[in-house]
Specification:
By secondary structure, the protein is an alpha/beta fold. It is built from 9 helices and 17 strands. The protein starts with a strand and ends with a strand.
């Protein structure tokens, strides 16, 4: 029978499948079809599919519903997938162990199950993990045609921000000079470079910078990427007046680095400033901080006020896309 399907290039198939599954939109009762380099992913509600996905109508076969952790547990567990690692956030160790066992028995392709043992902490923004199944905390994560080697025990990485990273990357033009001030393993740097930008990524975490080098190589963009370990405030002087675009994805303390961002900015620079604020005024504090740092040297124009996600009760993770014009 014909059903609505998301049509996606094969190399973006897994990340798209995961996004649809996370949103409860993947129609598991139908087969996923492959033809001429494209995957056709049946969906339950074509009107709820994100706008960046292409919908077509296609005849697909029925399939047996696979065993999911929920089938085995009798309740819907909460977890994230990062490559072949499943990430839990359970306070009760018995519940965590029960979910881990169900994940391994299910049809999910997974090698390792970990449970969060701490919040993100320290300057390097890493967590402690309890490894419930498996040995390695290193994996390869794929999103929007890019792949990233990383170790969750040594670097910070959030798969939940894939859509936001793609939103920003789509704004990048060929020939731009872009600077990621808190680059991690490269989830902004790599897609920027794939769009033929010259990109500099800086991070305090030495292991993250090592992975950034490797991920630039894996994605064939190493010639357009410079990766530097250190505090961006110490590096900014080497790139004064250089950037056409700068990313500040350090939402709890990005305001402390605005002077460095202004130093990096060229005559016309788009700044992607991430913040976490109360829902009553999620954008005001960030905009005020940017104006205080950039004016009167720059004219400040807020092009986009964007809610990325809910962060905590009454708190929002937001992004301000701001153009600085000297």
């Amino acid at each position: 029978m014909e059903v609505p399907c998301v049509r996606v290039e094969r190399e973006r198939g897994e990340e798209t499948r995961q996004r649809l599954a996370d949103d409860g939109l993947l129609a598991a009762e139908f087969e996923i079809e492959v033809e001429d380099g494209y995957l056709y992913l049946p969906v339950t509600d074509d009107e709820a599919v994100p706008e960046d996905m292409a919908i077509v109508s296609r005849a697909v076969g029925d399939r047996e519903t696979p065993d999911t952790p929920a089938d085995l547990l009798g309740f819907e567990p909460t977890y994230e997938r990062l490559g072949d690692i499943v990430i839990l956030d359970e306070d009760d160790p018995d519940t965590a162990r029960e979910i881990a066992d169900a994940v391994m028995v299910s049809d999910i392709p997974v090698e390792t199950v970990v449970n969060r043992a701490s919040k993100v902490k320290g300057e390097l923004r890493v967590r402690d993990w309890e490894v419930l199944v498996g040995e390695s905390t290193e994996t390869v994560h794929r999103e929007y045609g890019c792949e990233y080697l990383l170790d969750v025990a040594e670097v910070y990485f959030s798969p939940r921000l894939a859509t936001e990273r793609h939103r920003v990357a789509e704004q990048v033009d060929s020939g731009e000079r872009a600077f990621d001030m808190f680059a991690g393993v490269g989830p902004f740097v790599v897609p920027f470079a794939k769009r033929d930008a010259e990109v500099v990524g800086v991070d305090l975490n030495e292991r993250a910078v090592e992975y950034l080098h490797e991920n630039a190589r894996r994605n064939d963009v190493e010639e357009r990427v410079t990766a530097t370990q250190g505090d961006v405030r110490d590096v900014a002087g080497d790139y004064a007046d250089w950037a056409d675009r700068a990313v500040m994805n350090l939402p709890h303390s990005a305001d402390e680095f605005l002077d460095a961002a202004v130093e990096l900015a060229g005559d016309d620079c788009v700044l992607h400033y991430y913040d976490i604020q109360h829902e009553d005024d999620p954008f005001g504090p960030g905009e005020a901080a940017i104006r205080a740092a950039a004016e009167p040297e720059y004219e400040v124009e807020v092009e986009t006020r964007h809610v990325v996600r809910s962060y905590a009760p009454h708190e929002l993770n937001v992004c301000l896309d701001v153009r600085l014009s000297r």
